[in-house]
Inverse folding.
């Protein structure tokens, strides 16, 4: 039986028999299980782990979410650029500084592009970065704690969209500005755009030992819109590529006025040369106000540093720094294939998909095959850099990812499909519809040198009729597609948070064993930590009252507190004395105007509380911790401002 | 997951589902005094990382007990007092009631003990709070034992 020669077929058969048996035994469950082998391929049995982590951008939720593949199960929301009352992110005293910017406390943003750190062009599972579009920032999330550890503001930027993409060894995290703006900041007439507005390309250096990002330099570029980016790899290691649109330099009705030119550009930037030029003193120091916020590992308290200047390079001062590659038409994503030779410009209004050749680009530079020069930036001749075009790539091509067998997968928004094509021959070999309006797509490692080409996830903007309706606002969704065979096969639909933009995937084995389980109490250097119940206490310091509170299953110490007065500012410093995995305790007090605290084992977190009227206020644990969780509670008495009730706690 | 594991899982899921029927769970067998079939040594010394007797000296090693005292304050005192019932049982006389290895196994693997040892399970039904795993090393558990020995002699 030829059919049964293939092991996969055996598996499918076993799965179908299994499902058949289940259906016969339990008719009530048949709809939940499904009837095709797609169900078997996405089924992760209870208690077993998924093969891949998927990190999804939360878009306008400002967060990042963590899913498992192939099951499509959601594990976590990692709060990043938006406050998160669920665990006190942005509300607890320890985390508030993470939201500091040169505009003050900014509690929300729009997060589009997760990007895993890489070593030798392959995701290494150390960090994941993500951008804030609206108030330009880049965050670094540690993947042992799944926690945002650092946020760097980017000055001279507006709409930090082409961000954050890493170079082959995470030497730099690159970021481009969508809006061009007056640089330095100034109130000029909008009509003076061509004269006064500029774009910037930012290069953030990662000091991996110090776990610190710093804005090394920016490159001043013409006043276009800079859309997306990707760094080179292998032979193109020294280079980074940025798409542009609105080379028309329009300021109004861009949907018409920025769509006139047949070709815009991909900017190819030699970042190694740029860094050398900066070291050689060719950059100008320019005043710029921006913040770096980071979590101190010893205390787990966030701190803010304010920076006052940035080094800016002008391409005219550094010949050979940037070249423009003409690319039709308003290109959105720019993607570099695993070999580092091909640079794909996803021209969202183009009918063909141009594939540029890195080696041809170098030759064109050598031969000075320039069409023209703009602000010191040579524009290379299209035919001299083009490897070829993919014909009929679908309408509205946005992004391309790669597998490990020489194929590329391009998302086409308007025709709502994924188009699979051969990178060398540029022939389309397969296409599959997506439901509906695909934006990004993600193959684990699909933008790296070593894609794990088993699945592609379509990240769709619109779901219409795919799910139960929930009023005017519907969920957005991912679709998991099997790419292990010649033909793509749809396996699973699953809803996603916010508006999904880009995502990253990585084998779970590269991350899961490094996961931090607890914070060791001995190493907790928070200035308000307590290491045992004996140290629990209440102290008055003028109008400030510090409550040093401990939690362990299932009680707080102290849990009867008196002597607080209206007008006091109370700081609840809760240390969770647990040293066991998965035993956080929560803390909530009636009338608090901020949020709850969720405190991990061995950690200290602080909630500021300003009670408004005399009463006895209850407080309790919000995270179900044991059979006696409902008993985990206490009272705090608040007296009038002029009362003389002394501070006491549990009779002490 | 590799394919053979997947196959096994599917097949065992099928077998399991058939055995279970439609949602009617089998009742666990009535518990005897030693339902897990523990050995005599395990009944005395507990189930956990320690599988042989723990040697203690005739007297108390003061230095070790002092280390244990510090650890006790940080890791244990939120739930255990020496002379009164608190979240967990009083511990002054625990070294009389339990073998050294039993005490250390209880500290090192409370989840396992509650699951497998009838005595630990019985205590859970009295106190209703799972003893927490406080993430101590074997060396630290030994120090805690010495501290408890010292408190017993006092």
């Amino acid at each position: 039986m030829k059919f049964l020669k293939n092991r996969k077929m055996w598996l499918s058969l076993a799965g179908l028999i299994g499902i058949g048996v289940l259906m016969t035994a339990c008719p009530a469950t048949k709809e939940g299980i499904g009837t095709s082998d797609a169900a078997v391929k996405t089924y992760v049995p209870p208690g077993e782990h998924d093969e891949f982590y998927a990190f999804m951008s939360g878009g306008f939720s400002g967060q990042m979410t963590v899913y498992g593949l192939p099951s499509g199960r959601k594990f976590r929301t990692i709060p990043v650029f938006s406050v998160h009352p669920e665990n006190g992110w942005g509300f607890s005293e320890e985390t508030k500084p993470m939201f500091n910017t040169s505009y003050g406390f900014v509690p929300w943003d729009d997060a589009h592009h997760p990007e895993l750190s890489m070593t030798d062009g392959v995701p290494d599972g150390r960090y994941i970065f993500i951008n804030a579009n609206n108030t330009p920032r880049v965050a670094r999330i540690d993947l042992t704690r799944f926690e945002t550890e650092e946020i760097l503001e980017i000055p001279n930027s507006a709409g930090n969209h082409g961000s954050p993409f890493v170079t082959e060894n995470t030497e730099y995290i690159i970021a481009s500005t969508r809006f061009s703006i007056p640089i330095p900041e100034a109130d000029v007439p909008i009509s003076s755009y061509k004269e006064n507005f500029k774009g910037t390309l930012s290069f953030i250096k990662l000091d991996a030992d110090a776990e610190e990002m710093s804005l090394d330099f920016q490159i001043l570029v013409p006043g276009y819109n800079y859309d997306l980016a990707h760094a080179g790899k292998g032979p193109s290691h020294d280079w980074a590529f940025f798409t542009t649109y609105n080379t028309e330099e329009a300021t109004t009705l861009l949907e018409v006025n920025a769509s006139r030119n047949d070709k815009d550009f991909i900017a190819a930037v030699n970042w190694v040369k740029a860094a050398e030029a900066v070291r050689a003193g060719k950059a100008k120091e320019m005043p710029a106000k921006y913040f770096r916020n980071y979590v101190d590992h010893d205390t787990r308290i966030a701190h803010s540093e304010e920076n006052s200047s940035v080094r800016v390079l002008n391409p005219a001062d550094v010949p050979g720094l940037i070249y423009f590659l003409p690319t039709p038409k308003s290109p959105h994503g720019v993607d570099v294939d695993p070999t580092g030779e091909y640079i794909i410009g996803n021209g969202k209004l183009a009918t063909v998909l141009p594939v540029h050749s890195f080696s041809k680009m170098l030759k064109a530079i050598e031969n000075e095959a320039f069409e023209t020069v703009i602000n010191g930036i040579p524009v290379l001749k299209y035919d001299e850099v083009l490897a070829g075009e993919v014909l009929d790539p679908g309408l509205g091509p946005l992004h391309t990812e790669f597998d490990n067998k020489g194929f590329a997968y391009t998302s086409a928004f308007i025709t709502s499909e994924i188009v699979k094509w051969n990178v060398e021959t540029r022939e389309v070999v397969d296409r599959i519809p997506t439901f509906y309006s695909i934006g990004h797509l993600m193959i684990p490692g699909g933008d790296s040198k070593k894609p794990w080409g088993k699945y592609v996830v379509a990240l769709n903007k619109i779901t219409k009729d795919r799910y139960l309706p929930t009023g005017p606002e519907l969920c957005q969704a991912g679709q998991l597609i099997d790419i292990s065979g010649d033909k793509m096969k749809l396996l699973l639909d699953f809803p996603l948070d916010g508006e999904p933009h880009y995502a990253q995937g990585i084998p779970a084995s590269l991350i899961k064993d490094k996961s931090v389980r607890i914070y060791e109490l001995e190493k907790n250097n928070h200035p308000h930590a307590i290491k045992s119940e004996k140290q629990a206490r209440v102290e008055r310091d003028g109008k400030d009252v510090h409550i040093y509170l401990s939690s362990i299953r299932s009680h707080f110490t102290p849990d009867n507190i008196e002597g607080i007065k209206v007008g006091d500012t109370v700081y609840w410093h809760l240390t969770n004395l647990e040293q066991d995995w998965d035993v956080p305790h929560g803390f909530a007090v009636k009338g608090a105007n901020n949020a709850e605290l969720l405190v991990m084992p061995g950690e200290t977190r602080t909630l500021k509380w300003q009670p408004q009227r005399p009463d006895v206020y209850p407080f309790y644990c919000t995270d179900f911790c044991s059979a006696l969780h409902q008993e985990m509670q206490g009272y705090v008495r608040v007296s009038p401002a002029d009362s003389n009730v002394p501070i006491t706690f549990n009779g002490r | 997951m590799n394919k053979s594991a997947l196959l096994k899982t599917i097949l065992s899921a099928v077998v399991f589902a058939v055995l279970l029927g439609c949602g009617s769970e089998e009742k666990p067998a009535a518990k005897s005094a030693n339902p897990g079939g523990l050995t005599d040594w395990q009944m005395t010394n507990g189930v956990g990382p320690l599988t042989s007797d723990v040697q203690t000296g005739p007297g108390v090693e003061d230095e070790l007990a002092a280390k244990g005292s510090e650890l006790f304050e940080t890791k244990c005192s939120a739930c255990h007092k020496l002379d009164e019932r608190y979240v967990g049982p009083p511990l002054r006389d625990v070294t009389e009631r339990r073998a050294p290895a039993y005490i250390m196994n209880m500290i090192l693997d409370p989840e396992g003990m509650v699951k497998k040892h009838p005595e630990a399970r019985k205590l859970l039904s009295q106190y209703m709070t799972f003893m927490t795993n406080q993430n101590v090393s074997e060396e630290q558990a030994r120090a805690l034992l010495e501290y408890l020995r010292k408190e017993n002699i006092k």
